[in-house]
Amino acid sequence: MSLALSLYLVDPELPRAVIGSGDVRVRRAIGGRFKGEMAQDDEYFADEIEHGAPTRYEALTAVVEGGPFDAKHGFQYGYAYQMICAFHGRRLWSNSFSPFKYAWLGYVDEALKGLGITAVTVSELGYGLPSPLPHTDLPGHGVWTPEACAAALTQYEAVTEEQFAALDVEVREAVQDIGEWLQETRTHAGRGIVGFLA
User: Fold this and answer.
1) Residue numbers of the domain that contains 29
2) Has residue 4 got a pLDDT over 90?
3) Which of 63, 102, 113, 148 has its CA 20 to 30 A from that of 154?
4) What is the 8-class DSSP label of residue 5?
5) Stretch 152-160: mean pLDDT, rounded?
6) Rounded distance, CA 118 to CA 23, Å?
7) Taking the mean position of all CA atoms in its chain, how far away is CA 125?
8) Inter-axis angle of helices 74-88 and 56-65, nearest 10
9) Helix (H), strand (E), coil (C) string for 92-154
10) What is the domain count for the chain?
């Protein structure tokens, strides 16, 4: 099964604060901005919706209200939370992480560790959703805080050209993509990186 990482440059506290906030204006703004995408998603997940899953807008409403959640359909709340992150942030792109097999994250993490970059791992971008959202395998979710990004960028900038040259080409490209993401956080104070694995 092929996976992809969707990444957002965002203050992680902004989307997190939307969960359970009851903020109707934010919910409506997100619903309006992503109306077309939600319709496509509902069409894609029509079978699941027919069998009781909430529509994407219903899932968004539940996330904003803090529930109720149907744990059997946790994926819908995860994708709704991803929309909240997209609303508050800016998308980061990378060909190195779309599509890929899950083991690829481990290979990249090994390379990061070997280069002395230990403040972040790409694997941690595929863990669980924030509480109180129900558990779901996909989408996975993870956060690199602004502080972790700053520490990782310092470590990244200490890597020598010789160390980069010793890496496998595809792994080197992935590490350099990560470096570009981290550099974006430097120019946007207070922002970290929120990732979704699906």
Assistant:
1) 5-197
2) yes
3) 102
4) E
5) 98
6) 37
7) 6
8) 80
9) ECCHHHCCECCHHHHHHHHHHHHCCCCCCCCHHHHECCCCCCCCCCCCEEEEECHHHHHHHHH
10) 1
Between CA 75 and CA 59 the distance in angstroms is: 9
Q: Which two tokens stand for residue 86?
A: 């997209």
Going by C-beta distance under 8 Å and a sequence separation of 6 or more, which residues neighbour residue 110? none
Q: Which long-range contacts (CB under 8 A, 24 or more apart) does 123-130 make?
A: 125/5, 125/7, 125/193, 125/195, 125/196, 125/197, 126/5, 126/102, 126/195, 126/197, 129/74, 129/77, 129/78, 129/81, 130/16, 130/19, 130/81
pLDDT tens-digit map of 133-147: 999 989 999 999 999
Structure tokens at 117: 């970059």
Q: Give the pLDDT confidence of 20-55 residue by residue, as tens digits.
A: 999 999 999 999 999 999 999 999 999 999 999 999
Joined together, the tokens standing for residue 192 give 């970290």
Q: Does the global pTM surpass 0.70?
A: yes
